[in-house]
Amino acid sequence: QCGSNTASLAGWWLVAASGAQQPPRPSVSLHPSQGVSVGDNVTLWCHTPRPALWVWLHQEGRSTYGRMLDEERDATEFPFASTVRDDAGTYRCQYEVSDSQDTSQMSDPVELVLTGEGDAD
């Protein structure tokens, strides 16, 4: 009887410890959220449920933008000035928790759609 209690306590500890290592998933949003044309300014915001010192914005199949923050924040902006066609695409973000240095899962995706032709390359 004593052995089974010890095993269940050890199992609970493992679950609790592993759960503590995965920070809550962030969310990403676009401002403005629609009607963005080539050449316009747009800002992507990564909203972090826990204070973060590192935030990454991933453009699917293309680039990753990392920002080390000078202070803990719950939202980080990634401004795009004078957007070009290559800026269009699917974006996700993730962050590193400042106190434990654990990295979150990726956010759900957001799609940046650009209208207009822009300059030919």
UniProtKB/TrEMBL annotation:
Region named Disordered: 97-121
The protein, known as: IGSF1 protein
InterPro entries the record matches: Ig-like_dom, Ig-like_dom_sf, Ig-like_fold, Ig-like_Receptors_ImmuneReg, Ig_sub
Alphabetical list of SMART domains matching this protein: IG (SM00409)
Keyword check for Chloroplast: no
Organism: Odontophorus gujanensis
GO biological process: immune response-regulating signaling pathway
Keywords: Disulfide bond, Immunoglobulin domain, Signal
Ig-like domain sequence ranges: 26-104
Biased composition (Polar residues): 97-107
Annotated signal sequence range: 1-20
UniProt superkingdom: Eukaryota
